[in-house]
Backbone:
């Protein structure tokens, strides 16, 4: 147990989880992400991604991809996936690297 982290999470009577969310007008709270999972790339905040170090921007998003059975990296490669990101996302959110995996990672580890 991390006593210091636990102590830091409590301020007055409030418990700060590190979750980022939205409170809707009807009182419903929607949790969107964890603040520690947000990366900052060139001054822009990017949520729900795995970050990799970048010499100019600090961090940039990285994609982990598991291809559907029967599709291999020869038919769709890193360049194709990055081009798709650049076409469909804001430029700063586009993945700069694609890692092909048999099974996707299940934890929030920076590579």
Residues:
């Amino acid at each position: 147990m991390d006593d210091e982290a636990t102590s830091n999470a409590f301020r007055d009577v409030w418990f700060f989880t590190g979750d980022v969310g939205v409170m809707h007008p009807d009182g419903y709270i929607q949790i969107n992400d964890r603040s520690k999972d947000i990366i900052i790339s060139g001054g822009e905040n990017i949520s729900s991604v795995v970050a990799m170090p970048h010499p100019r921007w600090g961090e940039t998003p990285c994609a982990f991809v598991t291809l559907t059975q029967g599709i291999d990296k020869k038919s769709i490669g890193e360049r194709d996936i990055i081009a798709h990101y650049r076409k469909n996302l804001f430029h700063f959110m586009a993945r700069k690297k694609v890692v092909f995996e048999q099974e996707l990672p299940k934890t929030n580890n920076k590579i």
User: Anything to note?
Assistant: The chain has a mean pLDDT of 80. The helical segments are 3-9, 78-88. The CA atoms of residues 53 and 59 lie 5 Å apart. DSSP finds two helices and nine strands in the chain.
